[in-house]
Structures are given as structure tokens and as C-alpha cells.
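To: structure desk
From: M.T.
Subject: fold request, one chain
Message: Could you run this one when you get a chance? Sequence is below, nothing fancy, just the single chain.
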Amino acid sequence: MRFVDPHVHWWDRSNPRFVTATQEQADAFGMGDVSGMDRDYGRDEYLADVASAAATGRPGGAASPDGPAAGRPGGAASSDGPAVEAEKVVWVTATLDFGGQVGEVEWIDRTTAGDPLLAAIIGGIDPTLPVAEWRAAFDAQARAERFRGIRILAGLDHA
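Reply: Done. C-alpha cells follow.
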């Protein structure tokens, strides 16, 4: 079974623009324990998680007690089901540093250049910026070939 994952986050802690949630922030958003995010997580770790979920029937990958399952990158056959393979993914910005979205999009575009797994990049914008700065941040992200749009994490009035 092949699938498209419409929302993945990959990060590199050495990227100064990637700012993860503190446990206090995670609690406020109902995210649960985020201590497992204190590591780099990229394409290879994601594909190991896909293989692990296919082999064990549950997500978890390298963070699970079972560790990543053996199998070809991007997929694996479970003992009672068909092979599972991530055909394409859509990478979505996750930094909590509003100024960091441009750098994060540049990082994912650079580190995945030529990788057919990544189908699209979704960036982000601080909606409180003046229009000229908002436009400049959008235009900078739009230079990434696979950039397809933005997500807004805060600043909207949902009332």
C-alpha cells in the first residue's frame, strides 16, 4: 500500500531557526510529552518510523521500544498485511520562532534538493507583521521550488 503523508515535520537541532515547544507550551496545546523531540528527525528517521509502523502495526519507529523495523527504506511488509510505502510527503513548518520560518523553509529546501519523496513545502508567516514584512517573508519562502503555501500558527481571531 502506497500513501501520501500530507503533514510531516522534519527538523535538525543545529538549525538555529528551529525552535521546539517547551513542555509548558506543549501542555497548553495538548501535545503531551515532547521529550522525544529532543533529537534530530529527518527523512531517514521518518522512513524508519513508517517501516516500524508497517511491521508492528503501530507507530513509533526509533522512539518505540521495538526500534525501527528492518525493511527497505520507506516501507515494509507487516506480518499480516501488504507492504506499506510513503510515496510522497508534504513538509510543514513547525518552528515556534516566527522569524524562523524563512530559515526553516530554506533549510528543508536545501537538504532535500532532488529528493522525490518531498512533494511540497508549507511555510509560515507571523500574521502580526506589517504587510511589507509579511510579503517579504512570503516571497523569500516562495523561492523554494516546492513551496506551495503557508500555515498560520497564531494571531488569528477565532471568536
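Reply (cont.): Confidence is low (pLDDT under 50) at residues 61-78. Let me know if you need anything else for the meeting.
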